[in-house]
UniProtKB/TrEMBL annotation:
Superkingdom, taxonomy of origin: Bacteria
Keyword hit for Transit peptide: no
Biological process terms in GO annotation: ceramide biosynthetic process
Fatty acid desaturase domain span: 62-301
GO molecular function: sphingolipid delta-4 desaturase activity
Spans traversing the lipid bilayer: 96-117, 200-224
InterPro entries reported for this sequence: FA_desaturase_dom
Keywords: Membrane, Transmembrane, Transmembrane helix
Name of the molecule in the record: Fatty acid desaturase
Length: 323
């Protein structure tokens, strides 16, 4: 089955179905891949990272460095968002090329496996909210008894939310993500030959960093952004997506859409990742078509009436809190 045919029966479609079913021709057009747009987005994210590194080198200082940490951390989030599309086979038309390019330029630099993430995330889509939901394993949202862990119980007080965000930004969570990606379940789910290729890429990167004497720069301008801002906004996104969703219709109570402001899209929710109801209902639609899908669904009275749609990530954070 080709990538552009998968919209007719995408392997990550929800088992329970969706409340609004689009016509096949309409969905086919929305699901049509434009690889040049995905590749351009990838290039722009890496150019942004390079520009931030160059700025810190040109104008060193605390303020410039902190701004670079935030900007690079957001670009790292954008790389994983694009890699997320690849996990749904929505990045490039050719399946091998989809996984290869996404691995080298999107996921491996973030210590994540396309295959490992796909194995969890596909089940998250298919069994959303159920015992087989992949997020229960990937993000450890539930205990062995099926109860939500405290960090995923919402609504929280605003103070509790701030403390949770601060804990995520304190580096340790990011280090755990790196270890899990290197030696944990994400890597173990990667096919053997690709695991070897991944280790080869890491070995080459280590050699380059060592020969160039760039380890301090790598820690300060890659690991610090990853383990602080990137981890924090990932958590913000996750709780905005599925926590304390407000709707009177049970079919809409599992997911919230957050449409960020332009600044929020740059620094917190990049590459249309906030269109989450739309993405869950139609995982065949690539990231650059999600605004069009949203506009189409907004023509449906039931969607307009029942969907929990926030117009800012900060508003979403308020929605998941209580006074």
């Amino acid at each position: 089955m080709s990538a552009d045919q998968e919209h007719e029966g995408h392997p990550h479609d929800a088992i329970a179905g969706v409340p609004v079913r689009l016509e096949a021709a309409e969905l086919r057009e929305l699901s049509r891949l434009q690889p040049a747009r995905a590749l351009l987005a990838t290039a722009l994210e890496w150019l942004g990272i390079a520009a931030a590194v160059a700025l810190v080198s040109w104008r060193p200082g605390v303020v410039v460095y902190l701004l670079a940490v935030v900007f690079i951390g957001a670009r790292q989030h954008a790389l994983t968002v694009l890699g997320h599309d690849a996990s749904h086979h929505r990045y490039l038309n050719h399946k091998l090329g989809n996984d290869l390019v996404a691995s080298v330029f999107l996921m491996w630099p973030m210590f994540v496996s396309v295959w490992g993430f796909r194995s969890f995330h596909g089940d998250h889509h298919k069994y959303l909210g159920g015992v087989r939901d992949g997020n229960r394993l990937l993000w450890r949202t539930h205990t062995g008894r099926g109860e939500l862990r405290p960090e995923w119980v919402y609504p929280k007080t605003r103070g509790e939310l701030v403390r949770e965000l601060a804990r995520r930004a304190a580096f340790a969570t990011g280090l755990r993500w790196i270890v899990r990606g290197l030696i944990g379940s994400l890597m173990l789910r990667e096919p053997g030959p690709w695991r070897v290729a991944r280790l080869g890429c890491y070995a080459a990167a280590i050699a380059v960093l060592s020969v160039g004497g760039w380890w301090l720069e790598y820690v300060g301008l890659w690991l610090v952004p990853m383990c602080t801002w990137h981890v924090t906004i990932q958590y913000m996104r996750l709780i905005a997506e599925h926590s304390a969703v407000h709707s009177d219709d049970p079919a809409y109570q599992a997911t919230r859409t957050t449409i960020p402001t332009r600044l929020e899209a740059l620094l917190i929710l990049p590459r249309n990742i906030g269109y989450h109801i739309e993405h869950h209902w139609y995982p065949s639609v690539p990231f650059y078509k999600l605004p069009a899908l949203h506009a189409r669904l907004m023509r449906e009275p039931g969607f307009r009436r029942n969907a929990d749609i926030s117009t800012s990530i900060l508003r979403s954070m308020i929605l998941v809190t209580k006074r």
